[in-house]
Amino acid sequence: MGQRIELLPEHVANQIAAGEVVQRPASVVKELLENALDAGASEIQLIVREGGKTLIQVVDNGSGMDRKDAELSILRHATSKIRQAADLFQIHTMGFRGEALASIAAIAHLEMQTRNGNDDLGTHLKIAGGILESVSETVVPRGTSIQVKNLFFNVPARRNFLKSTKIEYRHVLEEFQRVALAHPGISFKLFHNDSELFNVPESNLRRRIGHLFGKRMNDRLVPVEEETQVVKIDGFICKPEFAKKSRGNQFFFVNNRYIKSPYLHHAVMNAYEGLLRPDTVPGYFIFLQVPADSIDINIHPTKTEIKFENEQSLYAILRAAVKHSLGQFNIRPVLDFEADQNLETPYNLRDRSAPVPQVEVDRNFNPFLEAGSPSALRKNYTRGSGNSWTALYDGLGEGEYQEGAKTHWIVESDAPPEALFDEDALDSLTEITSFQVDRKYILTRVKSGLLLIDQQRAHQRVLYEQFLENISLKEPVSQTLLFPMKLPFDPAELEMLNEMYDSLKALGFAIEKGAEGEVTISALPVLIPDAEVGTILEELLTNWRQQLGAEGYSDADRMARLLSRALSIRPGRILDTASRQALINDLFACKEPDRSPFNKKIHATLEVGELEKKLQ
Ligand code: ADP
Ligand code: MG
Question: For residue 322, what are the contacts with CB-CB under 8 A and spacing of at least 6?
């Protein structure tokens, strides 16, 4: 049977092409924002609903289009930006392929309202699934507004791949940040589900970074500047002590276009060598200007990768520039961090009044409870008053693990050596003899042999169950702060805190949104020491972002896990006898003492039989 070749109808071809250009709402955001920039707008608004799944709208005050251009703009390869193939090598505008609008129109409901400076009346176009439905005249201000609704309404397979609103919104936000960073001279607004999340005025780069990532960024930035024949570099890097455990806030722009470059990232990391705490990554906002003919922007529409002609010299120049800035601004080496901590606290605690000296009263003291019994310890612990449990937190920093410090196999034992042979003492529950091994494990005696407990995992389990218990109460136990704390957060973090609000409340936090990105905290779960709340919230936010993929648990449960990790005693902490004993007691009072909340094994027994074998 002969096969006939037929050309695909235009809108079907567009739909296929759309598969490449439009992967998710954020891709539409990128294309629409870039078009608005190309049109010379000075004010741009981005409005999204449900992470862009139901609505993405970009309103600009740029050049606008006349009726003919508006109709053309949604045809494939309709572009006002390239006239001949040769132009492809000298691309200065953002969009250049003339297929974004056609692709988007093929897989969504698109409406455009636009007017250029010469016309009195504007044009209103409606397209659904690539088919033009209506064109009419309308009264609109100069500029263009494009609404994209119901993305992938006609491509169920792709629609099903869309992630939760939170995740899609996160991608939209990233796209917004990239564009807004690259154009500090243009004002931007971002609305999500009808609330205005960003309103960033025309400004310079430094202020723009502050508007996008929070005022506290200002003290953390150090300028980088370098000009050579190969490249001109400018922008900002963050001081090493503010480097974070997770990636985020790392931005490269080449000729004002956001790119990803593991190679250049490596150059920056290399310059920070010796200044960072382990596993942390500094933030940076680095702009590189290179001759347009020395780069090859990947022609694939959604890729943000790039090839440089002089890759190696770029690497060397960038590394030197970053090193120079770190040196010039007297960035302290890592060992001084502890000593200088007061000079630059990441949180603005200076506004806080001095705390009133507190009289310690153990309100839970109950003379009828047997001292040392697991339940007594447990009660005291949840209240956080002066007892053996809080000893886990006492002297935080004192016995802290030091990199390179000598570690001893057995760090300490409060029991005199001969007690080791005292059977009675070993088998009694009230006095547990234990050792700390490598500042990481607790070793103790059980009937069948020796029990080895991972101190951090054990503590995580204990904390996790305490948090869960608290969540299950109608009125979570919390401590009201005498002086409510004010902590600054950047807009993205505020948005996340918003998402976390219910779970935070269930855990015992009382959090209120204040003016200008500040958050007021007036009560805390008892398990959280108030001096640490800032760090703990920051850690929570960072991990919350990463944990988004981990579905299947309730938000409160996930938060209890993260908090248990943030608060747990780390390897390297020396635990005194009372703390070790309390930890062991509490672990075995848990519902599931065998596994940590992250499903790691907490303890192992070395059976007497095994020990005997070892000595044969
Ligand atoms: P490209 O940007 O690659 O040219 P697009 O499909 O994104 O392709 O846009 C097609 C054309 O529509 C553009 O070349 C431009 O002339 C016009 N256009 C799109 N958006 C706008 C806008 N916001 N303001 C003015 N003109 C626009
Ligand atoms: Mg475009």
Answer: 224, 237, 267, 268, 271, 272, 284
Contacts of 448 (CB under 8 A, 6+ apart): 605, 607, 608
CA dihedral 592, 597, 600, 604 (to 10 degrees): -30
The token duo for 583 is 């930890």
Place of tokens 């007497």: 608
HSE-up of 303 (CA within 13 Å, CB side)? 9
Q: Which letter does DSSP use for residue 332 in this model?
A: P
Beta strands in 150-254 (DSSP E): 187-192, 195-200, 221-227, 232-238, 250-254
Max Cα-Cα span within the chain? 99
CA of 17 to the centre of ligand 2 (A): 14
Rounded to the nearest angstrom, the distance between the alpha carbon of 310 and the centre of ligand 2 is 29
How are beta strands 109-115 and 143-149 bridged, if at all?
antiparallel
Determine whether the shortest distance from the Cβ of 63 to ligand 1 is under 6 A.
Answer: yes
pLDDT value, residue 431: 58
Question: What pLDDT does residue 304 have?
Answer: 66
Q: Is 26 in the pocket of ligand 1 (CB under 6 A)?
A: no
Tell me the pTM. Answer: 0.59
At 7, list the tokens.
Answer: 């050309």
Candidates 262, 282, 285; CA nearest to 271 is: 282
Gap from CA of 58 to ligand 1 centroid (Å): 13
**Dihedral angle over CA of 127, 129, 130, 135, nearest 10:** -10
Low-confidence ranges of the chain (pLDDT < 70): 1-21, 76-97, 297-304, 330-432, 545-552
Q: Which of 544, 497, 491 is nearest to 521 (CA)?
A: 497
**Pocket lining: 97 vs ligand 1, CB cutoff 6 Å:** yes
Cα angle: 546, vertex 547, 550; to 5 degrees: 140
Per residue in 78-105, pLDDT (tens digit) is 566 544 444 444 444 444 467 789 889 9
**CB 487 within 8 Å of CB 455:** no
Classify residue 51 by its DSSP letter.
G
